Amino acid sequence: MIKESLKEGNVRIPSGCAICGIIDRTGRRFNGNDIIESIAVMHDRSNGLGGGFAAYGIYPEYKDFYALHVFYDSNESKKTAESFLNDHFYIETSGRIPTEKTPTIRQQPKIWRYFVKPNRYKLQESELTGEEYVAQCVLKVNSKFDGAYVFSCGKNMGVFKGVGYPEDIGRFYRLEEYKAYLWTAHGRFPTNTPGWWGGAHPFALLDRTIVHNGEISSYDANRRYVEMYGYACKLQTDTEVITYLFDLLNRRHGLDLETAAQILTAPHWEDVDRMPAQQAERIRTLRQIYSGALITGPFSIILGFNGGMVALNDRLKLRALIAAEAGDRVYVASEECAIRKLCPQPDKVWACEGGQPVIVYADYEKAHHEE
Amino acid sequence: MQYTELNRIIRQKPGEYTLSAVNGQRYIGCGLGSEYKINIHGTPGNDLGAFMDGASVNVFGNCQDATGNTMNQGRIIVHGSASDTAGYAMRNGEIFIQGNAGYRVAIHLKQYGADVPKVVVGGKTGSFLGEYMAGGIVLILGLGLAPDEDITGAHCATGMHGGVIYLARDIPDYKVAFAMNKTPIEPEDEPVIRSLIEQYCQHFGEIPHSLPLDKFVKIRPQTSRPYGKMYVGN
């Protein structure tokens, strides 16, 4: 048990956090070494209390199955949660996620992976889409089953995270053995909340993942808003709510990514007043319908999803975010050095602007076909 | 090389240093006096030249955040662009940036007696230029911009109460904060601007076309106590 006075939240630690992402627009896959090298350059932005990665295109042989990555605190919690998984899913295969003994990574939970499809009868009975069924089951495990936490549940993608520096977490999960067309990474410096395995970034629901630097001033407003739609914020950190907001807006409400970004970082009213009438009307409508989804406070985030990524800053740009292009690849990172480490002379380097999303798509299907 | 090791080596002995393959090392030149000259090739990390006290730093590459943070004296010349908060809370000294600079450039700039910090940016800057500026001189040249491109973002000079911002082209009124005057420059401004442009050219070479001074505007607080009546009428 940690002494109460030593828990984060009771001590003030100046904020840091590092994020970065690399995508190959042609969908060609590359192993995890690059992203580890990139995030490692920003080592000093984290404090060893969390690191993680999201990788897209890593399970082509199981691409029709949802890949559940699960932390268990004990055999007991595994047993209980597995009986739920067995009831609700057809499990094609399961096993421990391979890890490497790493001296700096300690006290890891049991880390398991399942390739699953919804149980056909239960799915039919529920009258839900496959995705919604999976999302509801995952949210249920995470909120109702003590000691079990599904931290990744998308198709042909996966999250790998834990407590430690990100470069150590990357080696721990042997990311050099995975190939993805999109990688995102996070180095954590928790400021207001505890550093624990489940609290590391990325936060994922289905194939949407979020890495985040900053803090959400509007957290409680956003949390209450997503709770109305059945999302339970149980992970003791603000970032998970951004994942749910994207899931709600993008998947459930079917809004495109530009619109979702416009809702999360809605233009200020004074800017709306200067817009052409039609555009102003549209923004006013979105702000009225989705007022609870506006995120305020300093942040830079990278959303990963099957087929692309979005990099986004808060409206006032209170966190750094640099982007670069080199050939087929696009990079984003908290610091330019993380990009230059991999790519000393990009074709183009630019600073992301507040509230202006950088959206990049990858043609994975085509590349996969050619592979 | 880790930044603590790099900075330890530099601090051992004054002189001129040329650093190559710099990538993300923080605090280079931090607190150093005029007995130092540092040439940096690559991408220095955050807080380059923080609290610097007279050293001169040349960067051949882009800078990250908080270049010249609370610098006391000295000069930083960036042959590239700089990210957010360049010149944060400078007390004196000069920063010349060849290209663009990010958000919150020259915020909290100070001035006391003969100590007048100067920040010159060749391209454009993001929002909040000169926020809470208390003194000093900021000059933005707008080189290489498209005809319709703004030279700075919104909320320019928010909370400013001293010093002056010169812009090589006018910006829409809404971008300038409350209690500020945005006016054409006056005759006494011309030598100041000319001298800074001359220095810019010495550092980075001739600029491709002449900058007509009659297009320049300056932003200053309306009074010496611009916010005295912000919340109360008397």
Please outline what is shown here.
The complex is a heterodimer of chains A (371) and B (234). Chain A is built from 12 helices and 18 strands. With 371 residues, chain A is α+β, with helices and mostly antiparallel strands.
Q: What does this protein structure show overall?
A:
The complex is a heterodimer of chains A (371) and B (234). Chain A is of the alpha+beta class and 371 residues long. Chain A has a domain at 4-58 and 156-213 and 299-370: Aminohydrolase, N-terminal nucleophile (Ntn) domain (Glutamine Phosphoribosylpyrophosphate, subunit 1, domain 1), CATH 3.60.20.10. Chain A is 30% helix and 27% strand. Chain A has twelve helices and 18 strands. Chain A has helices at 33-41, 75-88, 120-126, 130-144, 166-172, 219-227, 240-252, 257-264, 269-273, 277-289, 336-340, 364-370, and strands spanning 18-24, 30-31, 51-56, 66-72, 89-96, 110-118, 148-152, 157-162, 179-180, 182-187, 203-205, 208-214, 299-305, 308-313, 322-326, 329-333, 348-351, 358-361. In chain A, the strands form four sheets. Chain A has a seven-stranded antiparallel β-sheet. A five-stranded antiparallel β-sheet of chain A has the order 11-12-13-14-18. In chain A, a hairpin with a 2-residue loop joins β11 and β12. The longest helix of chain A is centred in the middle third of the chain and has 15 residues, at 130-144. Chain B has 234 residues and is of the alpha/beta class. Chain B folds into two domains: 1-73; 81-223, Glutamate synthase, alpha subunit, C-terminal domain (Pectate Lyase C-like), CATH 2.160.20. Chain B contains two helices and ten strands, in the order αβββββββββαβ. Chain B has helices at 3-12, 190-204, and strands spanning 15-23, 36-43, 53-60, 73-78, 94-97, 118-121, 134-140, 162-167, 180-184, 217-221. A ten-stranded mixed β-sheet of chain B has the order 1-2-3-4-5-6-7-8-10-9, with helices on one face. The longest helix of chain B has 15 residues, at 190-204. Chains A and B meet through α11 of A and loops of B.
